[in-house]
Design brief:
Largest sheet: 9 strands, mixed
Strand content: 15-25%
Structural class: alpha/beta
Helix content: 25-40%
Strand order of the largest sheet: 9-8-7-6-2-3-1-10-11
Shape: globular
Length: 492
C-alpha cells in the first residue's frame, strides 16, 4: 500500500500562513483528516485545522505542543470521527523533510494519545519553508513511521511535493529534449511522476492517453470496458481494421499506442477494463493524482464530479456536441472543457450535469427508443468527426498543462466554451452555489456521496468478449502484430 496526503489550496494556505512566521521561528499546528482509500493507495485528506489558543504551544526558536493542545484537538477529532495530524515547520528547510531526533520523539510520544482517541493512525507533517515543500508520515504505532509518497495541494494550481526515495525523479531522455525545454527539468520531474488516469478510450481519450505518454509520464492508466467496432474507426486514430475485426478491448488498443508513443525509458501503462460507475472503478481511480474524464454519459460524469471534490483529485472533463439542420447539413459545433477542483465550479453548477439525467442513465432509459418516444424526448445525438475530436483533446491537454505547469504562474482556467460556427472562445464566470451538493462534500474522502453501484452488465460484456474465439487467420495476424510491436518498442 502506498500513502499520500491531500489538502485543498485554501486549507494549505491557512496552515502555511500559521507555520511560516515573520520572525523566522518554527511553529506547530494540529489538523484533522479523513481517509480516501484506493486499491493501492491510501490518502489522508486534511479535513479541518485546529489553531492553537493562547498558551497551548511554546515558541522558542524551536516550537513544541502542550499536552492541553493535543488533548483538546484529539477530543475534537474523536467527536468528528476524524484522524489527528500534528504539523511543524522548518523555515529554512528545502524539499522533503526528514525527522530530527526531537521531532521523532515528540510524534512518537503523542502517537498513543492520537490513536487511543481516534482509533486511526496519527499523521505527522512538516513544512519546509525555503521552497514550500510538505512532507508526511503515518504512525501506525510508536516505533517507526511509514513515510508517505507525496503531499498534494489541490486548487486550480496543483502543487505536489514528492518523496524522492519512494518516487524517484525519472531520467530525462533524449526524446524529451523539446518538452523539457518548454518548462524546465524540475517541472518535468514533477509532472512525469504524476499518476494520470484517462477514463474513456474513445476518440478523445485515446488521443489524450498517447500524448501523456509522449510527454514523458511514467504511469498512465486508461479505463474503459468497451471494445473497438468498425464504426469507431473514423474517430479512433490509431485503431486498426484488425482491432475492429478482433473486437479488441479499447484499453488494449490504448496500451499499444501509448507504449509506441512513450518517451520515458520505462512507462507503466495500467489497463482497467472496468466501469467507473462501479465501486471497483472508483477504488482504482483513487490511486491516481489527476483524472481525464473522456466520457459522455451523465452517470460516469457524476461519479467523477464527486471524486474531484470529495477526494481532492483534479478531474479534467470535456465534450463535444455537433448539430445538423433537418436536411442533414452541418449547423454548429460546440465543445467545452473544464477542470474540476476546489476553486472552480463543478459540472452540475455549470450546467453540464443534470441530476435527473443521472437517474435515467442508471435505469438505462437514455438509449431506450420506447422511453424516448413516450417521454417526448429527442434521441441522443451521436455526431462526431475525428477532425473536431482533436480540438477537444487539445483543449483538455491545455487545461492539464495549466494545472500542473502553471504557465505565467496561473493555474487551470475557468470553464471554456468554444463555438465552431463563429469560432468564438468564451470563458464562464459561474461559481458553485451555496447549496451545491458536490462542493459541500469537499474533503469528505471515503464518506463521499455513493453514486457508483455494483452492476453485472459490464462484467458480462467483458467476460463474453474474452471467451470469444476468433478465426485462425485473425489470430495469426494478431501474433505477428504483437511480435513486431514488441521488437519496435525495444528500439532506443
Amino acid at each position: 500500500m502506498r500513502y499520500s496526503v491531500a489538502m485543498s489550496g485554501d486549507t494549505e494556505a491557512v496552515m502555511r500562513d500559521h507555520l511560516l512566521r515573520e520572525d523566522g521561528q518554527e511553529d506547530v499546528l494540529i489538523a484533522t483528516y479523513v481517509l480516501s482509500t484506493g486499491i493501492e493507495r491510501t490518502t489522508a485528506v486534511i479535513r479541518s485545522v485546529i489553531l492553537p489558543r493562547d498558551g497551548e504551544r511554546h515558541v522558542h526558536g524551536n516550537a513544541s505542543f502542550t499536552s492541553a493542545y493535543v488533548l483538546r484537538a484529539a477530543h475534537e477529532a474523536r467527536v468528528a470521527g476524524h484522524g489527528l495530524a500534528l504539523l511543524h515547520s522548518h523555515p529554512g528547510g528545502h524539499g522533503w523533510q526528514r525527522l530530527s531526533r526531537t521531532d521523532w520523539e515528540t510524534e512518537s510520544d503523542y502517537e498513543r494519545v492520537a490513536r487511543s482517541a481516534t482509533k486511526m493512525p496519527m499523521l505527522g507533517m512538516t513544512l519546509g519553508g525555503e521552497n514550500i515543500a510538505w512532507s508526511a508520515r503515518f504512525w501506525f504505532d510508536r516505533t517507526e513511521p511509514t513515510w508517505a509518497e507525496s503531499v498534494r495541494s489541490v486548487s486550480p494550481v496543483l502543487a505536489v511535493t514528492w518523496n524522492d526515495e519512494l518516487r524517484p525523479v525519472p531520467k530525462i531522455t533524449g526524446a524529451q529534449e523539446r518538452t523539457v525545454s518548454s518548462w524546465g527539468d524540475r517541472s518535468q520531474g514533477r509532472i512525469a511522476r504524476l499518476r494520470v488516469l484517462v477514463v474513456g478510450a474513445g476518440s478523445v481519450g485515446l488521443d489524450v492517453a498517447q500524448r501523456l505518454a509522449a510527454t514523458g509520464l511514467i504511469t498512465v492508466g486508461v479505463m474503459d470496458y468497451d471494445a473497438v467496432e468498425r464504426r469507431n474507426l473514423d474517430r479512433m486514430i490509431g485503431a486498426t481494421r484488425l482491432d475492429a475485426a478482433l473486437g479488441r478491448a479499447k484499453v488494449d488498443v490504448a496500451a499499444r499506442l501509448m507504449k509506441s508513443a512513450a518517451t520515458a525509458d520505462v512507462i507503466d501503462v495500467r489497463r482497467h477494463e472496468v466501469s467507473i460507475t462501479d465501486p471497483v472503478g472508483v477504488s482504482i481511480a483513487l490511486d491516481y493524482d489527476v483524472i481525464f474524464s473522456c466520457v459522455d454519459r451523465p452517470w460516469p460524469r457524476a461519479v467523477l464530479n464527486g471524486i474531484a471534490y470529495a477526494d481532492l483529485i483534479p478531474v479534467i472533463d470535456g465534450g463535444i456536441a455537433l448539430t445538423t439542420f433537418p436536411d442533414g447539413h452541418m449547423r454548429n459545433g460546440i465543445w467545452r472543457t473544464h477542470t474540476l477542483t476546489p476553486g472552480r465550479p463543478c459540472m452540475a453548477c455549470i450546467g453540464q450535469l443534470v441530476a435527473g439525467e443521472v437517474s435515467l442513465d442508471k435505469l438505462g432509459l437514455l438509449e431506450d427508443p420506447e422511453y424516448i418516444e413516450g417521454a417526448g424526448r429527442e434521441a441522443p445525438s451521436h455526431q462526431n468527426v475525428a477532425a473536431l475530436s482533436a480540438s477537444v483533446s487539445a483543449s483538455l491537454l491545455a487545461q492539464f498543462v495549466s494545472l500542473v505547469a502553471h504557465p505565467g504562474s496561473r493555474g487551470a482556467p475557468a470553464p471554456l466554451h468554444y463555438v465552431l460556427s463563429t469560432h468564438t472562445l468564451m470563458q464562464s464566470d459561474t461559481s458553485c452555489g451555496p447549496y451545491c451538493a458536490y462542493e459541500n462534500a469537499t474533503r469528505t474522502g471515503d464518506r463521499r456521496t455513493p453514486i457508483a453501484e455494483h452492476r453485472n452488465d459490464w462484467r458480462e460484456e467483458v467476460e463474453a468478449r474474452k471467451a470469444k474465439r476468433h478465426p485462425l487467420r485473425l489470430r495469426i495476424l494478431s501474433s505477428v502484430e504483437y511480435l513486431l510491436q514488441r521488437y519496435t518498442n525495444r528500439l532506443r
